[in-house]
């Protein structure tokens, strides 16, 4: 396996963020995710905004190492995940047809289509659509991990609260912040993580 060599700008970015916030007391995977999200956003508040459990992240990391599929709620999240192909049915005409026929949102329809393709054990990544989180919970998709980071003032916080209350293995954040870049950064942190390396 090839060890990833970060670009010098990324190395310098990490040096700066580590000079501004000390995340070393965090468990290793949680720290890796927090640092990658802060690196991607230049927003130090994520140091205290992210909510998860280390065992949830470990389960997601192990699943990714084992080749588990990654399902995203939109193309922008998929585009930000740089190390792996993803499954994304948001733009699939079948999702639009299903949404109309079942009187559900297109995001919910995309979750149904994705689950029929990947089955249990996938890593689900939501950066935009709160409805996708509610559908993931309702469908009982048996995920390895759900990264739920939709952004916005309408439904985003509630969806993340529902995700945390669901008992599913999850990574979310407390505030209305989030978005595609944040969700993708969290996945990338797990994909890039190597045990024993800072």
UniProtKB/TrEMBL annotation:
<dbReference type="Pfam" id="PF02570">
    <property type="entry name" value="CbiC"/>
</dbReference>
<dbReference type="InterPro" id="IPR003722">
    <property type="entry name" value="Cbl_synth_CobH/CbiC"/>
</dbReference>
<comment type="similarity">
    <text>Belongs to the CobH/CbiC family.</text>
</comment>
<comment type="pathway">
    <text>Cofactor biosynthesis; adenosylcobalamin biosynthesis.</text>
</comment>
<keyword id="KW-0169">Cobalamin biosynthesis</keyword>
<keyword id="KW-0413">Isomerase</keyword>
<feature type="domain" description="Cobalamin biosynthesis precorrin-8X methylmutase CobH/CbiC">
    <location>
        <begin position="9"/>
        <end position="192"/>
    </location>
</feature>
<protein>
    <submittedName>
        <fullName>Precorrin-8X methylmutase</fullName>
    </submittedName>
</protein>
<dbReference type="InterPro" id="IPR036588">
    <property type="entry name" value="CobH/CbiC_sf"/>
</dbReference>
């Amino acid at each position: 396996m090839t060890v990833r060599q970060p670009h010098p700008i990324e190395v310098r970015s990490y040096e700066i963020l580590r000079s501004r916030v000390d995340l070393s007391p965090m468990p290793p995977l949680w720290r890796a995710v927090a640092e990658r999200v802060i690196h991607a956003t230049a927003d130090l508040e994520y140091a205290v905004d992210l909510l998860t459990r280390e065992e949830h992240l470990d389960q997601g990391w192990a699943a990714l190492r084992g080749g588990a599929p990654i399902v995203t709620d939109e193309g922008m999240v998929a585009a930000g995940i740089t190390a792996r192909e993803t499954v994304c049915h948001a733009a699939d005409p079948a999702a639009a047809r299903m949404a109309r026929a079942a009187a559900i949102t297109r995001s919910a329809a995309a979750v149904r289509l994705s689950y029929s393709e990947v089955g249990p054990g996938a890593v689900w990544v939501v950066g935009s659509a709160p409805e996708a989180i509610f559908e993931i919970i309702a469908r009982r998709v048996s995920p390895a991990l759900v990264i739920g980071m939709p952004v916005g003032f309408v439904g985003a916080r509630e969806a993340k609260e529902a995700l945390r209350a669901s008992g599913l293995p999850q990574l979310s954040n407390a505030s209305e912040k989030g978005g595609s870049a944040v969700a993708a950064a969290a996945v990338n942190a797990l994909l890039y993580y190597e045990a024993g390396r800072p």
